[in-house]
Design a protein that fits this description.
Chain A is α/β, with parallel strands linked by helices. Chain A is 41% helix and 24% strand. Chain A has helices spanning 40-47, 72-80, 97-107, 113-126, 142-154, 172-187, 199-205, 223-228, 233-240, 244-256, and strands at residues 2-11, 14-24, 29-33, 55-60, 63-66, 82-85, 160-164, 192-195, 208-213, 216-222. In chain A, helix 6 links the parallel strand 7 (160-164) and strand 8. The chains are: A alpha/beta, B mainly alpha.
């Protein structure tokens, strides 16, 4: 359903992504793992043109696009069929929770305001926030905001949802409620590409893992193989380091010794 | 005897103040207020366009906007009025006093408010704009539905400030023969020589007008919930 070939991206002189090839099948949950600064987020942002890749091919929904000269219309048509969940939630501050959810279907003309509200309430129900429908983002906790953001992402019935470190800005207690919603979506067959540091989520909810380091895909395997039989020494290192913060700590201690 | 004279003089001033009050107030209602309202309305339109051009970094238009702001913020309002009203006729361009005043005020105020609006636009986090694109909005939808409402809310207190300033600045148009409150008062002073009492009366009338605007500003801020008071209150209740 989504296929990326030879994607390249650099900022000024620094190459961030080097010849990325990947594909995501319909109904599949792909987790993108890797240390900080490996280009995971940039890769995800290139999928939705929040960053523009320098070159490469993107096949989405059966249509092939050349990334170096993609038109505004092509970008708009791809964005209408995808959704994005941000690390920092990015809810519209001037809209209530329900207002945020209905915005997409209403502006794209997919639904009337009334239809969108009915659907919006169902989605808020799904993420457990129906009672917060008329609250503004400033009145919600981080975990609640992120769940509203997920409901907003679902509202346009996207072919795929991109998650950019959706729990990184949350404390452990709030992480759980967001990961629960995401796991539910995974079991329901929603196509997802998730950049994350949550290894247990990746292990339990993802079908396939892509491991990125220094802008290159070093390993691509089923979740089971990735965690149980890693072959690449860097992946073994990464998994041994556990969560990223721990890995950073080890690095710091090493440099001190 | 001298007490009686003073009393008579006081009486005369009071009756003068009472008789002049409706005359001055009337000029305020039919000249100062419409002039302020129309000019500020036009200034808002100019400011919004100029701010959006700068915000969107439109190549050449942006430079033109910067030059416009530079000129109108950098020269005195009174001189701008003189250039347009007394100067332009030398080029064969004659504009009636009232439209001339509207033109100059709109351009002058537009330059100031454009900067206020730009600051408001830039206060909206980029993440919300990206989120707008991701739910399928076009650039203009993002601006209209997400950025501008929040920018206006952020800019509202400063814009109200500009409006009150402008109301008072309209007294300058007496210089280009617009018969507003100041000119009317000047004429009464010329006839009666009661400068102190009459100019204090005029000041009081301006104070009444700006008080009304201040009250409206607070009402507006509450309505827009500029400081987020309502949210806090709601939270406290729940």
């Amino acid at each position: 359903m989504l296929k990326v070939e030879h994607l390249k991206k650099s900022f000024q002189d620094t190459t961030v992504l080097e010849d990325i090839n990947l594909n995501v099948e319909k109904g599949e949950v792909v987790a993108v793992l890797g240390p900080s600064g490996s280009g995971k987020t940039t890769l995800l942002r290139c999928m939705n043109f929040l960053e523009r890749a320098d070159s490469g091919l993107l096949t989405f929904d059966g249509v092939q696009h050349r990334l170096e000269r993609i038109s505004k219309e092509e970008i708009a048509s791809i964005r209408r069929k995808t959704a994005f969940v941000f690390q920092s939630f990015n809810l519209f501050a001037n809209r209530t929770a329900l207002g945020n959810v209905i915005e997409g279907p209403v502006v794209t003309g997919k639904m009337t305001v009334h239809e969108a509200k009915v659907r919006g309430m169902q989605l808020l129900e799904k993420v457990g926030l129906a009672d917060r429908a008329d609250h503004y983002p400033a009145e919600l906790s981080g975990g609640q905001q992120q769940r509203v953001a997920i409901a907003r992402a679902l509202a346009t019935d996207p072919e795929i949802i991109y998650f950019d470190e959706p729990t990184s800005a949350l404390d452990p207690k709030l992480k759980g409620e967001v990961l629960k919603v995401m796991s539910d979506l995974a079991t329901e067959g929603v196509t997802m590409m998730v950049v994350t540091h949550e290894l247990s989520f990746a292990r339990n909810a993802a079908h396939r893992i892509i491991y990125l380091e220094n802008g290159e895909i070093l390993e691509e395997a089923s979740a089971k193989d990735f965690f149980e039989h890693p072959t690449n020494p860097k992946v073994i290192d990464f998994l041994a380091g556990g969560d990223e913060p721990k890995e950073l700590e080890t690095k710091e201690t090493n440099s001190l010794n | 005897m001298s007490n009686l004279l003073l009393f008579a003089a006081g009486n005369k001033i009071i009756s003068l103040l009472i008789s002049s009050f409706p005359k001055i107030l009337l000029r305020g209602l039919i000249v100062t207020i419409p002039l302020t309202a129309i000019s500020f309305g036009c200034a808002m339109v100019i400011a919004t366009f100029v701010a959006m051009i700068q915000y969107a970094k439109v190549p050449i238009a942006r430079k033109i906007c910067q030059i416009y702001i530079w000129i109108f913020r950098g020269t005195p309002l009174l001189i701008q009025l003189y250039v347009v009203f007394f100067g332009l006729p030398n080029l064969g361009i004659m504009i009636d006093p009232f439209p001339c005043a509207v033109l100059v005020f709109a351009l002058n105020e537009g330059a100031y408010c454009a900067e206020t609006m730009r600051a408001g636009l830039e206060s909206v986090p980029v993440g919300q704009i990206e989120a707008g694109y991701c739910v399928g909005m076009s650039y203009f939808q993002v601006m209209r539905r997400i950025v501008i409402p929040q920018a206006l809310k952020a800019a509202f207190p400063s814009l109200s400030n500009s409006l009150i300033s402008m109301l008072k600045d309209t007294s300058l148009v007496a210089n280009i023969t617009v018969a507003e409150m100041f000119m009317t008062t000047q004429r009464i002073v010329a006839r009666t020589y009661e400068a102190l009492a009459l100019y204090l009366e005029l000041a009081a009338i301006y104070l009444i007008f700006s008080t009304v605007l201040t009250v409206l500003q607070h009402k507006g801020e509450n309505y827009l919930d500029v400081v987020g008071r309502r949210k806090k209150k709601k939270n406290a209740e729940s």
